[in-house]
Each structure stands twice: as structure tokens, then as C-alpha cells.
Amino acid sequence: MTTKLTDLETPSLLIDKGRLIANIGRMTAATEKRGISQRPHLKSAKSVDVAKLIVGKNGSGATVSTLFEAEEFAKVGITDLLYSNAIVPQKFKRAAALVTDGVDLKVVVDNVDMADRLQKFCKETGVSFSVLIELDMDGHRSGVRPEDTDRLLAVAAILSEGGLLSGVMAHAGKSYALTDAAAIEDLAREEEAAALQAAAHLRNAGYRCDIVSVGSTPTALADIECLGATEMRAGTCMFFDLVQRGVGVCTFDDIAMSVLTTVNGVNRETNRIITDSGWMSLSRDRGTSKQKEDFFYGQVCLEDGTVLPDLVVLDTQQDHGIIGYRAGIEKTVPEIELGTLLRILPNHVCATAAQHTKYFVVDENNEVEAIWPRISD
Fold first, then answer.
1. Do 69 and 43 contact (CB within 8 A), yes or no?
2. Which of 96, 209, 277, 297 has CB atoms 3.0–4.6 Å from 261's, for a disulfide?
3. pTM above 0.85, yes or no
């Protein structure tokens, strides 16, 4: 039995199921065309129901950002998992418990110290992990530079001593700062080439490197041929968001996630509309602030999802959203009745979804057909 949006208590997190399925299809088609396996990142979705729609399409495994996610997905039979955050000693036992329970858990390190600690832990406990060396191919975050052969081989030597080394992992984080398709394609090639360079160093030194894992949403969707990487990780592409629109890899019509909110005030003196969705439901993410078009805290839409151009959430308080026009737009905010429902498209789906415990799944008739719980700890 379906539920109308007017029956929901706001703020509520909505998923347009048609768009979600279309986005998953696009990602699957992109990886199939590229000739590379898909290992979708589930950190954005944190949902068993979403995982069931994508895991196994052009690949068998998934990527997670927490061990709690790994535990929850393992319960429903998703057991080929890459834990993509560099592991630390406090998490060794919890990760080992997953392996003991039959989960094929791959973990990540990027330095000699952690490799040594992990190798000793495995030797003492008899538990064996598949370990990837994280690469820093663009100075975006952490990892070993692919050309830093001494450091790369030092980490590999320790891991190989315990039979742990399985491959390398790269992430083109600077892709989020691009806006040109050609530049994104160039970076996708650079990302894969860097990972393959590191893999070649390992293999030439006699070390195992079965897995060459790459991926970010922009580079995963780039129209290039696979150079030899074995798998692609991406997650935001399931939903898309305003940041990805700014990068140029989606349009408003592709964004599958929104926050349903209610108008609870109109201030004619300040030319602002007030809603019940503040940073507790939208997040404080300002990912579009450095892009050509800044959406502040979100793009405003009508209840049916129709975008209202230039009308954005200018500011947020804990439980209040302040809607108005961008500077330079000399318009009066629309005549709108108190109690009117609006939708807010998010800057960053990971941050916005993290504020909620469940998704209300909306069908083509703009009615709720299901409620999907989110994994939270």
C-alpha cells in the first residue's frame, strides 16, 4: 500500500526509485563498456535494500567505509568486501571476527608501521587478511606515491612476509574539482596508470598484486578504455548530488535523493521562506561553495521535484532552513502557503543521508512505495 507525501512527517529523506535504478544502470553500463569489474562503494547508501540493487552487477563485491557496514552487509550474504579506510590496531580484532565468520574482507594500509603491526597480529592469531596498499596518486589524501618505490616495496615486503599482500588501491579525489569531460577522462587515465605503475613495481620485485582497484564517481563514469585495472569503486553515482552536477557528470534530473520539508514561515521583510529542515536534516556540507554555481545548503524544488531556479537554502539553523534567492536575483520569494511541502536537493548525498535513519522510496506517481532502513551505529 502506497503512502502520499502529505502523510509523511517532515523532514524526511526521499529516494526516487526510478532515478536510482537508472543511475545504477548507467554505472553498470559504464564499467561493462570499459571492461572492468564493479565494486560499488556503499558508504553513501548504507542500505541493504540499495545494495541488493547493485551488488553483483558486473562484479561480485562491494566497498564499505566502516566495519559496522561490513557486519550488516555480511548478514545478508554480501561477503566479498573491501574496507577502504586504512585500518588501525583498535580495529584488528573486529575485522578478524569478520574473517573468522567467513567474510572475504580486504583491508588497506599505507605505511610500514601499520603493515608491521597487522602482520604481527595475523601471525599471533592465525587470522589472515587480504591487504591492499593505498596509493596517493594526486595529493588528495593519504597513501603511498606510486613512484615512491622504496616505500612501496618496504610495505609490500612486510605484508608479503605473512602472505597478506593482494594488491593496490587508488582514488582520484581531485576529480571533484574538475568540470570538463576531457579533463575528467585524462584524470581517469592518470588514476589508472598510477595504480598500474605501482602494481608493476610490486610484480617486478616478485610480489603479488592480483587486485588493482580504482575509482571515484567522475572517473568511474569517464568514457575511456580500461588500461588494466581489475575493479572500479564508486558510490555517489547511485544517487548523484549538486556537487556532481557541478562537476558535470549529472543533471538535476539524475539526482535521486532529496529532503522533504514543510514551509512553516514566510518573512516578507527579509524576503525569506522558513522551513523545518535545518542542518540536522540537510547537513552543514558546503561542497558547491567553490564551484561555478553555489547552491549554499541545497536546491529548492516543488513537492513533485520541479526545480525552482535560483531559489536555494541560503542558511540553516539546527531545525530551520532559510530559503531565498541568490545575491543578484531581484525577485520576491513565491507566494506560498504555510504547510506547503518542498523538496531540497542535497549538496553531498553522503552528508545529507547521514542525518537520517531511513529512506522513503518514491515511485513514478510521487507516492511512497517502501521504507528502507539505513545502517547506522
1. yes
2. 277
3. yes
Amino acid at 79: T
**Eight-state DSSP code of residue 328:** T
* The residue to which cell 613495481 is assigned: 201
In tens, the pLDDT along 222-243 reads 999 988 999 999 999 999 999 9
Query: How far, in whole angstroms, is CA 187 from its chain's centroid?
Result: 19
Strand 367-373 relative to strand 3-4: parallel, antiparallel, unpaired? antiparallel
Which has the closest alpha carbon to 188: 199, 173, 203?
A: 173
At the fourth CATH level, the homologous superfamily of domain 252-373 is D-serine dehydratase-like domain (2.40.37.20)
Task: Using the structure block, give the residue that is written with the C-alpha cell 582514488.
Answer: 171
Which residue type sits at 318?
Q
Q: What pLDDT sits at residue 315?
A: 98
* Whether 153 contacts 190, CB under 8 Å: no
The domain made up of 18-237 has a fold known as TIM Barrel (3.20.20)
Sign of the torsion angle spanned by Cα atoms 361, 29, 176, 79: positive
Domain boundaries, the chain: 18-237, 252-373
One fold for both 18-237 and 252-373? no
Contacts 24+ apart (CB under 8 A), 91-97: 91/67, 92/117, 92/118, 92/121, 94/67, 95/67, 95/70, 95/129, 96/121, 96/125, 96/127, 96/129
- Beta strand 341-345 with 299-302 is antiparallel
The label of the residue with cell 539524475 reads 254
d(CA 136, CA 300): 37
Q: What is the DSSP letter of 296?
A: B
Cell of 224: 575511456
Task: Give the tens place of pLDDT for each residue, 171-192.
Answer: 888 888 889 999 999 999 999 9
Residue whose grid cell is 599505507:
110
Whole-number Å distance between alpha carbons of 17 and 13: 13
